[in-house]
Design goal:
Blueprint: E1 5-9, E2 15-18, E3 27-31, H1 34-41, H2 45-54, H3 60-71, H4 74-83, H5 85-96, H6 100-113
Parallel strand pairs: 1-3
Antiparallel strand pairs: 1-2
Helix pairs in contact: 2-5, 4-5
The structure holds zinc ion (2 copies).
Length: 114
């Protein structure tokens, strides 16, 4: 017996593929669609600078900036965020999201080859 299936993008909820029937009990599998995959591979300027900070490659401004951003409290980080949203977002994700740093380094390495 065939099993009913539906493949949905875990990022944008787009239905990528499904069996051609009307069954309500389709087994849902989450994958990432090509568009989201491409988007995920992009690295923004702030993330790039953050990786370079971790690698000790920044100039003095961003070295001081990220050193401060790594230790500021929430209120001050909001202030910094206004001027440097991408940079602060990268620091926040680094502190809070498991696997972000590994994934960011991968994107950074891909961006160097592009
Ligand atoms: Zn089916
Ligand atoms: Zn998607």
């Amino acid at each position: 017996m065939h099993s009913h299936f539906r493949k949905i993008c875990s990022e944008c909820d787009k239905v990528i593929e499904q069996c051609r029937c009307m069954a309500a009990n389709k087994t849902i599998t989450y994958v990432i669609c090509e568009d989201c995959k491409a988007k995920k591979l992009l690295i923004n300027k702030g993330e790039k600078l953050f990786v370079e900070f971790q690698l000790g490659m920044n100039g003095s401004f961003y070295t001081s900036f990220f050193r401060a951003a790594m230790v500021v409290d929430t209120i001050n980080s909001h202030k910094l965020y206004e001027g440097f949203p991408e940079e602060i977002e990268a620091v926040r994700k680094f502190k809070n999201e498991d696997g972000y740093w590994e994934e960011l380094q991968e994107r950074y390495n891909i961006s160097l080859k592009a």
